[in-house]
Design a protein that fits this description.
Number of strands: 0
Low-confidence stretches: 62-67
Order of helices and strands: HHH
Helix content: 40-55%
Structural class: mainly alpha
Amino acid sequence: MRSDGQGGSAWRLKWLTTPPVSDSPDSIKKEIGKLAFLRDLDTHTMDLSMLPAERRRFLPCTRSGTG
């Protein structure tokens, strides 16, 4: 991650939404780093029920066994 002169949140969002450029080991490590970053923030435990159904439809779905 690096700052490109934007605010902290803006460059982090850009970093998270940047897709991999190849299927090389380095690209895979970067994607795993993004997942680890999000898991460290406990984003996988966030309650998204307050979001409108239209918005939740676009979020990735995971099967955690909790419905």
